[in-house]
Amino acid sequence: MPAYKSIVILTGAGISAESGVDTFRDKDGIWSKVDYRDVATPEGFVRDAARVHDFYNQRRRGMKGVRPNAAHTALARLEREFSGAFLLVTQNIDDLHERAGSASLVHMHGELGKALCQACEQSSPWEKDMSVLSQCPACGSIGYLRPDVVWFGEMPYQMERIGTALAQCDLFVSIGTSGNVYPAAGFVGEARFSGARTVELNLEPSDGHSSFDEAILGKATEIVPAFVE
Ligand code: BJW
Predict the structure, then answer these.
(1) Which of 1, 41, 49, 193 is such that its CA lies 20 to 30 A from the CA of 142?
(2) Which residues are catalytic?
(3) pTM value?
(4) CATH of the domain at 167
(5) In sequence order, what are the residues at sequence separation of 6 or more whose Cβ sits closer than 8 angstroms to the Cβ of residue 113?
(6) Position in ligand 1 atom list of the atom nearest CA 185
(7) Ligand 1: which residue has its CA nearest to atom 62?
(8) Which structural domain, as residue segments, surrounds residue 126?
(9) CATH number of the domain residue 136 falls in
(10) What are 143-175's pLDDT values in tens digits?
(11) Are 46 and 128 within one domain?
(12) 6 with 119, same domain?
């Protein structure tokens, strides 16, 4: 990518699909099986914390068997070889980007491998199952832990850092996201406003496809390595 000085990449569930991680809004996706209001809102957690813990415990256990794929690896290689400014923003709560070697990375919707304490507000690494009786490793309180993920109605992480990068980028690439969820779905507009070239890499045209300069359609493991070459 020698022509560019500053790149922002946004990824969504589609980049991890071929690693065996479920997407949300595809035909057999997560939201076809569970109601997001029950498991991905603060109100759902207040209503039935045990159910929400069960949902994320299952997904955390599922992560143990999955591996980064060629698309994750290609983005890590791009970051290593690119000499300008680079920021990878993922909506995914899996850790496949870091396991592939990405370092300049923002998990804007949080991380499945972390617990957030609602008593002391500390985030701590968390690998095992979580329950309403789990103890915070930071302050020792019992009964205040939740998965450190961003639910509907909550503020995504590091928005200021992302906004600064979008205001400076000259290439914005969106990979494997349906463009349904804000504020991520609005990043293409911010990048366009900055004068960046905007490219979508996805299995099918996303909701916001008309906002992109260019679309490359196909499987992430094929089109991402080809784009990065
Ligand atoms: C492949 C493939 C393959 C498949 N290869 N591709 C207007 C402005 C601002 C906010 C709002 C607004 N209108 C409404 C809102 C509120 C709300 C929202 O967006 N609601 C919409 C439903 C309308 N947003 C929020 O509440 C957010 N917070 C917020 O807005 O705070 C205020 C604020 C405003 C302005 C600035 C700053 C702050 C929080 C949203 C939190 C979302 N949380 C979840 C759950 C996280 C934890 C968990 O994982 O359980 O995040 S919901 C879920 O959706 C998850 C995902 O990260 C997110 C996006 O999904 P994604 O990644 O796009 O997956 P899919 O399944 O939708 O798409 C996959 C795509 O891949 C498809 O297109 C496939 O074709 C493709 N694909 N296989 C390539 N092999």
Answers:
(1) 41
(2) 109
(3) 0.97
(4) 3.40.50.1220
(5) 60, 63, 95, 125, 126, 127
(6) 19
(7) 12
(8) 27-65+115-149
(9) 3.30.1600.10
(10) 999 999 999 999 999 999 999 999 999 999 999
(11) yes
(12) no
